Amino acid sequence: MKVVLTFVSLWMICLAGHAQSSRPIADPEFDRTLTSLLKNEVPALSTAALAGCTEDYLVLDTRSREEFEVSHLENALWTGYSEFDSSLLGSVPVDAPIVCYCSVGYRSERIVAKLQSLGYKKVFNLYGGIFEWVNRGFPVVNSEGKITHRIHGYNKKWSRWILHPAMRVIY
Questions:
Q1: Segment 146-159, tens digit of pLDDT
Q2: Domain boundaries, the chain
Q3: What distance in Å separates the CA atoms of residue 33 and residue 100, rounded to the nearest whole number?
Q4: Which CATH architecture has domain 2-170?
Q5: What is the pLDDT of residues 104-125, one digit of tens each?
Q6: For residue 77, what is the enclosing H or E element?
Q7: What pLDDT, on the 0 to 100 scale, is given for residue 17?
Q8: How far apart (Å, rounded) are the C-alpha atoms in residues 145 and 73?
Q9: What is the mean pLDDT of residues 19-41?
Q10: Do the beta carbons of residue 134 and residue 70 sit within 8 Å?
Q11: Residue 14, CB half-sphere, CA atoms under 13 Å: how many?
């Protein structure tokens, strides 16, 4: 009975992430920047909502290959942004739950829109991207699948939003 209750509780937490209307970001200034940067025309998922149930999604990293190799969310598949090719999804059903992310959500938001135009129905943008993911203390892995404290900062301007003191920014 305890196992069933635990499973149901975790399942409800994951479902609650889909219905979130607010997108909590650790730093209010970063949130204001995201509000002005993003179009917010696609569904978003908070890092906290994804953290409890990453295995329930196909997680796509839309950053450059170089960024991905420094670190990425565990089990994420690299698709790139300018290199993105929908044929990479192969036989992924259009009703499969998918989360796309990049550094802050700009590139991934556009890939989500592209996937929606291809008929994908349960596709989300990770609000705040991998920067917010690490700011919240969630782990990232390197190209060997080992937890790392390195993250690609995209560039000096955007890397200022990596706030977690344990993270080492790489360019």
A1: 999 999 999 999 99
A2: 2-170
A3: 19
A4: 3-Layer(aba) Sandwich (3.40)
A5: 999 999 999 999 999 999 999 9
A6: strand 77-78
A7: 44
A8: 9
A9: 83
A10: no
A11: 14
